[in-house]
Amino acid sequence: MSVQLNPTEKTRLKRLPKRGHFDRHTIYPILDEAFICHVGFAIEGQPYVIPTGFARIDDDLYIHGSAASRMLRNLASGIDVCVTVTLIDGLVLARSAFHHSMNYRSVVILGKAELVTDFDDKNRALEAFTEHIIPGRWAEVRWPTELELKATSVLKLPIDEASAKIRTGGPIDDDEDYTMNVWAGVIPLSLHAAAPINDEKLTDGIRVPDYVSNHSQNRES
Amino acid sequence: MSVQLNPTEKTRLKRLPKRGHFDRHTIYPILDEAFICHVGFAIEGQPYVIPTGFARIDDDLYIHGSAASRMLRNLASGIDVCVTVTLIDGLVLARSAFHHSMNYRSVVILGKAELVTDFDDKNRALEAFTEHIIPGRWAEVRWPTELELKATSVLKLPIDEASAKIRTGGPIDDDEDYTMNVWAGVIPLSLHAAAPINDEKLTDGIRVPDYVSNHSQNRES
């Protein structure tokens, strides 16, 4: 599959086209840094947007949930889906209210999801979900049983019709506003990991593993 | 309008109903803490999910954008919309891969948006957007001109059919897994504001205002 995705009528940005990106080198790091996606689908014309965890394996995005999940049952029936991932990078404070903005990186993926039924493929997806949350975790946890795999629906969405949208940098004000006596700039935002909290039922003597303690440094790019 | 919202067939949680909340006291603080929402709508069956800024005034949620925005033009035509707001609070690391989870607070609002046309109402919405990004900002920036208000579309969505979903606390493992020699617990996550960055073109001698320096303490609840 080529690195460059072709913009379609649906993914091409109608406005501010310079913020649009269609290459996997731009899209994948955004997906890999985010913890959740927002899954959009419509049932009888009513749209729903549901936040959920996800993972990427190569050129596919995977989501999962209970086999009883209404959302997953609907998506598995082959309806159109839109998966959007957004990272907020900063608040952009301009001199005029009108030019306030945010720095962000977002990805929109359109397509149809398909149910993953093969147990090895499902297991591989669960490994990807676990490693997506925190790399290093899969090696030390108990792996899914056959019963757990049966109780889990895994859906695969090809990353084919997709685009990224990115805003970076400071505020852009109107020429005549630069003389105003008001502070302007950016407040950088990032998702911050605080010190891990032991489970109440943690067996005495089990220490926080390095991949957990180092998590915040690993994630923030 | 009552504080308690009636769950509808569409907002009632089908699974894990104990995570569902239908009162404004739960829903509004989640909306007010978040910087962006994800707006879902369908055009000819194709769902789209677009991240955007927003603000709440009383019992209405407002979004805005360029009058040329395709999304806003579609929404203004009175189609069904779903606005979802999600805050990620932590990674929940269980002893089994299957029970890994995330702590989060999310709100889903369903309804139809309507275009705000009155200039005073639009101006009030722009004030709310600015104050939503950072309280205190409106008082010192240049306010919108009539031309800017004309170039801006503002949409209002009543917060009527809405629900919140919340997960808190540590991992819940299967009984037999508690004896495993593996760390379990929560990595708390929160959106962190770093030191503000001056605009390159900032006039010499303008200092960062207190409401900006104190931003991170104000926001994190």
Account of the 3D structure:
- The structure is a homodimer of 221-residue chains.
- Chain A has 221 residues and is of the alpha+beta class.
- Chain A has a single domain (17-219), classed as Pnp Oxidase, Chain A, CATH 2.30.110.10.
- Helix content of chain A is 21%, strand content 37%.
- Chain A has six helices and twelve strands.
- In chain A, the strands form two sheets. In chain A, strands 1, 2, 3, 6, 7, 10 and 11 form a seven-stranded antiparallel beta sheet that branches.
- In chain A, a hairpin with a 2-residue loop joins strand 4 (55-57) and strand 5.
- The longest helix of chain A has 15 residues, at 119-133.
- The radius of gyration of chain A is 20 Å and the shape is globular.
- The two termini of chain A are 26 Å apart.
- At the A-B interface, strand 2, strand 3, strand 6, strand 7 and helix 3 of A face strand 2, strand 3, strand 6, strand 7 and helix 3 of B.
- Strand 12 (197-198) of chain A pairs antiparallel with strand 11 of chain B.
